[in-house]
Amino acid sequence: MQIVDLRQVRARSLENLFQEEVLRWREELHWDYRPSIDLIRRFVDSRALGGSVAMESGQPTGYGFYVLEEHKGLIGGLFVSSHTEQAPVTQRLLREILTALRATPRLQRIEAQLMPFGTEIDPAFLTPDFKLHMRQFMLLPLCDAQMTRQPLSTGLSMEPWSDRMFEPAARLIQLAYADHVDAEINDQYRSEAGGMKFLRNIVLLPGCGTFLPEASFVVRPAGESRLAGMILTSTVADRVGHTTQICVMPGYQGHHIGRQLMERSIDVLRQRNYESLSLTVTASNRRAVELYERLGFRTIKTFAAGVWKA
Length: 310
Known about the structure:
Layout: E1 2-5, H1 15-29, H2 34-45, E2 50-56, E3 59-69, E4 72-80, H3 86-102, E5 109-113, E6 130-141, E7 156-160, H4 166-176, H5 181-185, H6 192-203, E8 210-211, E9 217-221, E10 229-237, E11 240-248, H7 257-271, E12 276-282, H8 286-295, E13 298-309
Parallel strand pairs: 4-5, 11-12
Antiparallel strand pairs: 1-2, 2-3, 3-4, 5-13, 6-12, 6-13, 7-9, 8-10, 9-10, 10-11
Helix pairs in contact: 4-6
């Protein structure tokens, strides 16, 4: 096996890997990954991505990439073909990427949430430096959704998302995830500025499908500008939605706001003839997992989020 720098190859040489990766996302996660692959192609050809490619007999069998963002590195993707022995290629690619990231000056943190296809990648993170958080990818056939139709508490109103809500939504993210496990996984949740960056990636950029404002809502206390809860939804394939964010302000939790937001989003998706809805959740967040299970979601894949700190 030979490992080469991702910046030494052109996207066309990875085309067979890209096509297989698109197929896996579609078959296993009901997700149209083609827009993401289009972005990766452009970044590879502009040599804007760090990363590694595994070569066997002159042919690419796997690749992984990372991006640098201020003080941290984000491992944005890793895929190994099912036509090769996946485990050793996966492990080698991860070692190469982690070595490169750790050698980056002033890097304080590495985050990785890599969806495994055909082989587990979690053992690569089982070192004293990495902390693992198991995550669940859950799917709901919308025809099977278990709805309760509970009304909102008095003094609260639910409104459609609008771009005027960026600032209060970023503030909500910071407050809702204070001392939460998800803020350990994604440090954008720890500040209002980070929350704003997260929101722009979801709403304005194709960071997680195509944003669907019609199925995205906020809950607001009457007469106030602050938010008590929020749900953001995107389209990730034909007639498939994905909940990209749902959070409720401390003090309002335990009043069924999360479920009411989910049900409102599900109603809109049904009206638009969507067939399914997916989401990811941290396994240790049992309250959230149980809520989704009561709605009818089932876990179809588990994966690990790894965090390394200098």
